[in-house]
Amino acid sequence: MRQHELSLNETVPECDWVVLRLDGRGFTKLTKEALDFARPFDERFHAAMQKTCEHLMICGAKISLCYTQSDEISLLLKNEDTPFSGKTRKLNSVFAGEASGIFSLEVGRPVAFDCRAIPLAQTADVVDYFRWRGEDAKRNGLTAFCYWTLRAAGFEPAEVDVRMYGLSKDQKLELLSEYDVDFAAQPQWMRTGSFLRWRSDVRVGLDPRTKRQAPTTRQVLEWLAPGPEGQLISNLVVDVCSPES
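Now predict its structure.
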């Protein structure tokens, strides 16, 4: 029986970095039907996602960087810091369970996340990964604003689908302007997602041994917005992935 149990005991392949990407299961139905969330984005939902990310950063693994957009979370680890000896079944199940538990407590009903482990060979791949997810956030955010703007204007779902079919980015922005919606003025987290990282915080305190003031350094969590054109993403990822980090 032990042989059967271990037959799918895969490990992360040799690489420099590992991303664990979590996605909410059935969150479209959750936000539309089960919970009274504002559309296209809700501050309470966003706060619950932030709490979940903050928990994942301190739940026992050495996470270098976290990125979240919509119902998605990406966690970056050095391969050498990957827990459970890199066993993907453990990584996927444990982190999905941690996220599901915290988010459920935050929104007051049971929800689930899935998780997948993604090996990335080098820092350049990490930059490409997060820029890819950032572009996905911008595309989905713009589409969501268009969809719910038309719904608020009285269009039925089928009519909205017809109206939006094949629209380019510029055409979607023009559609929003027709209804006096400025997409660029919306909060950054709605348009591009958010990063969570560790930052060194230096404070001066009293050394109990010498009774003298001395600087102390502690690691604190810091939220950042990606910024326009993905440049901050590149700079942030390269900074986090540098050997000195």
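DSSP finds nine helices and six strands in the chain.
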